Amino acid sequence: MLYRKNLPSWERWVRSIVALALVGVALWLAPTAIVQWLSIISALVLLVTGMVGYCPACHLMGRKPQ
After folding, report:
1. What is the pTM of this model?
2. In the chain, where are the structural domains located?
Protein backbone atom coordinates (compact mmCIF):
# COMPACT_ATOMS: atom_id res chain seq x y z
CA MET A 1 0.00 0.00 0.00
CA LEU A 2 1.39 3.37 -0.99
CA TYR A 3 -0.29 5.33 1.78
CA ARG A 4 -1.90 4.83 5.18
CA LYS A 5 -5.46 6.00 5.65
CA ASN A 6 -5.60 9.06 7.85
CA LEU A 7 -9.35 9.70 7.79
CA PRO A 8 -11.82 7.91 10.07
CA SER A 9 -14.86 6.35 8.41
CA TRP A 10 -17.29 8.99 9.70
CA GLU A 11 -15.19 11.76 8.13
CA ARG A 12 -15.03 9.89 4.85
CA TRP A 13 -18.84 9.77 4.78
CA VAL A 14 -19.12 13.46 5.67
CA ARG A 15 -16.67 14.45 2.94
CA SER A 16 -18.59 12.44 0.35
CA ILE A 17 -21.96 13.90 1.34
CA VAL A 18 -20.61 17.46 1.41
CA ALA A 19 -19.02 16.93 -2.01
CA LEU A 20 -22.32 15.83 -3.53
CA ALA A 21 -24.14 18.76 -1.92
CA LEU A 22 -21.48 21.16 -3.19
CA VAL A 23 -21.94 19.92 -6.76
CA GLY A 24 -25.69 20.44 -6.45
CA VAL A 25 -25.27 23.96 -5.10
CA ALA A 26 -22.69 24.77 -7.77
CA LEU A 27 -24.99 23.67 -10.56
CA TRP A 28 -28.02 25.63 -9.37
CA LEU A 29 -26.79 28.62 -7.38
CA ALA A 30 -23.35 29.59 -8.68
CA PRO A 31 -23.39 33.19 -9.93
CA THR A 32 -20.68 32.74 -12.57
CA ALA A 33 -19.10 29.90 -14.52
CA ILE A 34 -15.77 30.38 -12.74
CA VAL A 35 -17.36 29.94 -9.32
CA GLN A 36 -19.24 26.93 -10.65
CA TRP A 37 -16.08 25.23 -11.93
CA LEU A 38 -14.10 26.00 -8.77
CA SER A 39 -16.89 24.52 -6.67
CA ILE A 40 -17.03 21.39 -8.80
CA ILE A 41 -13.24 20.94 -8.63
CA SER A 42 -13.33 21.36 -4.84
CA ALA A 43 -16.13 18.82 -4.64
CA LEU A 44 -14.12 16.34 -6.70
CA VAL A 45 -11.15 16.71 -4.34
CA LEU A 46 -13.43 16.11 -1.34
CA LEU A 47 -15.05 13.12 -3.02
CA VAL A 48 -11.74 11.50 -3.97
CA THR A 49 -10.20 11.98 -0.51
CA GLY A 50 -13.40 10.65 1.03
CA MET A 51 -13.42 7.56 -1.15
CA VAL A 52 -9.71 6.83 -0.78
CA GLY A 53 -9.47 7.65 2.93
CA TYR A 54 -6.26 9.62 2.61
CA CYS A 55 -5.92 13.39 2.72
CA PRO A 56 -2.52 14.85 1.77
CA ALA A 57 -3.31 18.13 3.57
CA CYS A 58 -4.09 16.25 6.79
CA HIS A 59 -0.82 14.34 6.39
CA LEU A 60 1.13 17.59 6.01
CA MET A 61 -0.48 18.94 9.17
CA GLY A 62 0.68 15.89 11.10
CA ARG A 63 -2.55 13.94 11.45
CA LYS A 64 -1.89 10.41 12.57
CA PRO A 65 -3.47 7.43 10.77
CA GLN A 66 -6.60 6.02 12.34
Report:
1. 0.83
2. 9-60
